[in-house]
Amino acid sequence: MSAPDSLFGRVLRGRDVSPAVSMSADVVVIGTGAGGAAALYSLAQAGLRVVALEAGPFVPPSMMTQREEEMMPLLFAEAGARGNEDLSLTLLQGKGVGGSTLHNTNLCKRLPPEVLADWEQRFGLRFPDLDDDFARVEAMLGVRQIEDAQVNANNAVLQRGVHALGYAGGRLAHNRDERCQQSGFCELGCAYHGKRNALRVLIPPAVARGAAVLADARVERIQHSGGRVHAVVGKLVDNARNRDIGDFTIRTNGVILAASATGSAALAIASGLPDPFGLQGQRLHVHPGAVVMGLHDEPILGFMGTPQSVECTEFLSFGPGAEQRVWIVSGFAHPGMAAAMLPGLAADHGALMRRYAYASCAIAMVHDHSSGYVRPGEGEIVHIHYELDAADRAQMALGLREAARLLFAGGAREVVVPLVPPLRLRSADEIDAQITPDQVGPFSPSLTAVHPMSTMWMGNDPRTSVVDARGKHHHLENLWVADGSLFPTSIGGPPQIPISAFGLRVGRHVASTWGA
Length: 516
Description:
CATH superfamily of the domain at 4-63 and 193-280 and 473-485 and 495-515: FAD/NAD(P)-binding domain
Strand order of the largest sheet: 8-16-17-18-15-21-22
Oligomer: single chain
CATH topology of the domain at 4-63 and 193-280 and 473-485 and 495-515: FAD/NAD(P)-binding domain
Strand content: 15-25%
CATH class of the domain at 4-63 and 193-280 and 473-485 and 495-515: Alpha Beta
Shape: globular
Low-confidence stretches: none
CATH architecture of the domain at 4-63 and 193-280 and 473-485 and 495-515: 3-Layer(bba) Sandwich
Number of helices: 13
Distance between the termini: 35 Å
């Protein structure tokens, strides 16, 4: 085992320090995704002695094989099978040094002004300099709008549909650069290191400033007493073989929770963090989505090229009174995931898979007002309770109808909607009569989500929120939160830029606390 001082300024795997490690740090950051990595960056730049813990593995680009059966267990929580209790919703969450930025499709948007206005009115939250942090994150990640040459055939279908119907929409912005080969494997990790993500942009400079990053380190408890956190304890794991190989204890003067809206809340509850009003783990939002498939006469090859470069915002509005709350983007999946998501059984399912190369796909995501809750399980298991309320079922029906309409307008000859039983539409004239809110329910359609939020949310009142506007826990002097669980509501768009911006802010605040 290495001496504790020798661990700083390095990225290590659990096996490097097994069977046990005990050390001290000014601050421990739990999680290395968009928020944790940004907080780590701020703290390291301030010269603090920081340790970042990551339950997942360290997977550099050289290990990203572009094979589903190898990368899904490595890069996704619960091997990509995490879901709600009845499995009607699959929640794809990243693990590994870099978190979900390893497998995301690089979508970049700021928080909508209407969402910020809602937070100010309902929760007393004001962030007058937030645009400066958005700009800083965008510059660091190299965010830029997708160009013509990066729009693949699948996205072109949605783009044609938007233009043909006169709907609001356009190109998305991504954080990818010239290393991107447009190979289509973004969701399995980038073997070419073309993503300007947390692994590439935020973690290396933090390590160069002396931060320690320990992968394969599953936190089991945050130890606290007298209103203060004292230590973080857990297991060193062998992620490849799914077994524990040792223990760790890190004594610390502060903790930043950045393990995602599911992981942070589950750990807070498992650790018995003070929660006098029973709020931790509540208000879970996820942007639930469903896929609609278009079938074409010509090959689309949607698995090739840059994914998710076009959006439709015609039916997306914000705020508590919003009547239409659906964001439609293109999407696609590699064969294994596509087979899991397509409707039908036996010969019917096989017939759809044989049309795989001729398929386009649109995803209807709901800016959800429904909310669920999170509870801890064993190991990396998290218990998630979530279902759509009546209003969000109506929004999902709207999204399915308009996704189908966009695919027909973009050139599809037939559209498959994964309700129960599956709908196979041969004309846009069939859409409104065939897709209604009363057809939407558990498994109809099966839902997928990638944006968990809100379980440790910000607010000025300790009776109605878990942390304050700086991310500091209302009932612990030295615990902060820096991930999507900070958001008081669903945000209606990709969270990478907002989470990173708040991660920088939380890190700066913690560093200034030490300076004071």
